[in-house]
């Protein structure tokens, strides 16, 4: 039998060889990125910003995303920490940082130039700039719908030709009063910059009216229940659903 020392040396050599052959584990790291807003750009309230680390080494191919993370931001500039794996980075390659902000599913801000990162003498802490690529509707940009008596002219795409048509009025705090064609209702709507939502149930009277008036009132209630947005154009007001379809058209009622 071989001496015990020989066996120990062979076992140690085997362990060292296995360690040398095993792939190195990726080390987690963080890239500090300062995000600024272009001078003429506007950040929507409570914005969700996505920041990405991209491999841009190949000019003839699309960039590859190595890391991405979303951050809620209330103002810019801000510094974020973007996690990535060092094993994904090759000193011979080129990398860049990009960012974007979406509002209602539409990108409104994004970086429009390349901001190098990590290799090829890139800054240790890149500073990137978000540019405006689509308008951002802010609360003060939307014409008010409060304090105006609105009269319904169309429900669900059907022109309403009726005496004593339904009406709707809003106060500045979102409180509303509605005449549905038979009963009168009150409640509080949530109104934002082009957005609107009504409570599931309205407080109101419980009169019984002829069937056509009751059907009209139910159509009015259903239209308000599906409304998620509004557009005012002078004396005209449209309420739209989540698909952008107009569910209710109203005119400013003359005094």
What does this structure look like?
- This protein is mainly beta and 255 residues long.
- Helix content is 13%, strand content 41%.
- The protein is built from 2 helices and 19 strands.
- The strands form 3 sheets. Strands 9, 10, 11, 12, 13, 16, 17, 18 and 19 form a 9-stranded antiparallel beta sheet that branches. Strands 1, 2, 3, 4, 5, 6, 7 and 8 form an 8-stranded mixed beta sheet that branches. Strands 14-15 form a two-stranded antiparallel ribbon.
- Strand 2 (47-55) and strand 3 (64-73) form a beta hairpin.
- The longest helix is centred in the N-terminal third of the chain and has 18 residues, at 4-21.
- The radius of gyration is 31 Å and the shape is elongated.
- The mean pLDDT is 88.
